[in-house]
Amino acid sequence: MSLNSSKITRWGGDSFTERSKKTLGLIIVSGLPLGSFTRNFSSSTSNLTKVAILGAAGGIGQPLSLLMKQSSLVSDLALYDIRGSPGVAADVSHVNTSAKCHGYLPDNNGLEKTLDGASIILLPAGVPRKPGMSRDDLFNTNASIVRDLATAAAKVAPKAHMLIIANPVNSTVPIVGEVYKKAGVFDPKRLFGVTTLDVVRASAFLSEIAKTSPSKTRVQVVGGHSGVTIVPLLSQLKEGQNVKGEAYKALVKRIQFGGDEVVQAKDGAGSATLSMAYAAAVFADSLLKALGGAQGIVEPTFVKSPHYQGQGVEYFASNVELGSEGVKEILPIGPISKEEEELIKACLPELKKNIEKGVKFVQ
């Protein structure tokens, strides 16, 4: 597709150029330093809510619990895990912010108590990656965990916004979708796969090359959340256009397989838990702001999308405007280069296969 924006097909009545004028200045949160999104909210736009974290005692769950405790938009923080969650709740409750913390275990209807009244459910539960494992290798274990937790959420908190972190996201999001469909409560506006880490990584890695500020270098990443399904649209930034040849190929590969760096560096002791927790907190905080009435909140996320439904791809990650009901509008992808066209061609069949795997697991 040509980079000439005048040739971009209209989407939702606006060309990308017209649409970008409305949205590019409105990406409020993604990539900002932590202090920028935890303490500086106006109470007039706050909608204090209960947030539930399922898998709160794990490698992602613990730092995520701490980050969400810092948000002035959270009134109640409910932490659930099969073990350790009361300890996490006790620990983070000592942080001098207003959110009330409660930790629950499976006994005494702990899961139901965690979910009851939740506006947002964050689901990092599952086993972490180890050296040599891909996200897809985690499917057999994590699929069952996600299915069972989604089944409970569909019964207890069907209107809650479900944010899926558990890998493989390309398959676990469809699993939740199918569970909700069977329960008769599926609302595509309220189901999200958290892919913010891909954008955070892409922005950080490109800024290293371009010598720019990572928080101001925002790369749109589309597709999915695993390997070749991760497609960074570097050509949409001047800094990205300057990366060519082998350097471009190396940068794309690093973005697509950035998680491997962490798995290898931790020498089998874990995966990208801290950066993933940060990315999930960024997305959750953006959603909290949108639910509270803030306008123009745009974040990348893996959702039920029209972008490639004609090719059998029901879910796709791209920039989405968030609103009071969750997904307000799925934004156009915008102009892409020939190299990015090829990346998307490679992405789609793999992504379709991942999605179908999740759907079939429930059916």
Automatic annotation (TrEMBL):
Substrate binds at R129, R135, N167, R201. Keywords: NAD, Oxidoreductase, Tricarboxylic acid cycle. One of its GO terms (cellular component) is mitochondrion. The keyword Mitochondrion does not apply. One of its GO terms (biological process) is tricarboxylic acid cycle. The active site is at H225 (proton acceptor). NAD(+) binds at G55, A56, A57, G58, G59, I60, G61, D81, N142, I165, A166, N167, M276. Residues 49-193 form the Lactate/malate dehydrogenase N-terminal domain. One of its GO terms (molecular function) is L-malate dehydrogenase (NAD+) activity. NCBIfam families: MDH_euk_gproteo. This is Malate dehydrogenase. It comes from Phakopsora pachyrhizi (Asian soybean rust disease fungus).
